[in-house]
Design a protein that fits this description.
By secondary structure, the chain is of the alpha+beta class. The protein is 42% helix and 12% strand. It starts with 8 loop residues before the first strand and ends in a 6-residue tail after the last helix.
């Protein structure tokens, strides 16, 4: 990991440097970094058990959800932006895929309720900052990075900004 994780700042490459994360994501990151490597996996498992169920309007219409094909296990997301420009991330992943469910839960809990601008400002390499790069495979970290990237793209689509990351 580059630099001290307690002081993060946004740079031109959309990566972590000294960018100050929103409190919800900073707390999640700090919770992981406070643990030894083996205990981080247990925390990830806790997150997987906390992934909220989809609201009925999405559970009954799976065609509204986008598959994150970069993930090894099937995970689907849908982003809502409310009238106050607050983001709500909904995700589903099989219980037999605790790593994927954990990543989806981290992002759902960490991003939901943030403003559009706060979500779009989250560094693209946030998944690298939570201390799991030695505990899980690079392919799985790329899956979480893709979850974040697709979430941000859906946010931009919902607010009509379009464009790239």
């Amino acid at each position: 990991m580059r630099g001290d994780p307690s002081c993060m700042r946004w740079d031109n490459r959309h990566t972590m440097s000294d960018y100050e994360l929103p409190e919800s994501l900073a707390q999640i990151r700090d919770d992981f970094l406070a643990l030894e490597q083996r205990d981080r996996l247990l925390l990830l498992l806790e997150f997987s058990n906390e992934l909220p169920e989809l609201p009925a309007k999405y559970a009954d219409h799976p065609d509204l959800l986008e598959r994150v094909v970069e993930c090894q296990s099937p995970v689907f997301i849908f982003v809502e932006v409310d009238d106050e420009r607050r983001v709500h991330l909904h995700a589903t992943a099989p219980k037999e895929a605790p790593t994927t469910r954990g990543f989806a839960s981290i992002l759902s809990q960490g991003l939901s309720g943030l403003s559009v601008d706060e979500v779009l400002a989250v560094p693209d390499d946030f998944p690298d900052s939570i201390g799991l790069t030695e505990a899980v495979s690079p392919l799985r970290i790329r899956g979480m990075t893709a979850l974040l990237g697709r979430t941000k793209r859906q946010v931009r689509e919902r607010v009509g900004a379009g464009g790239g990351a």
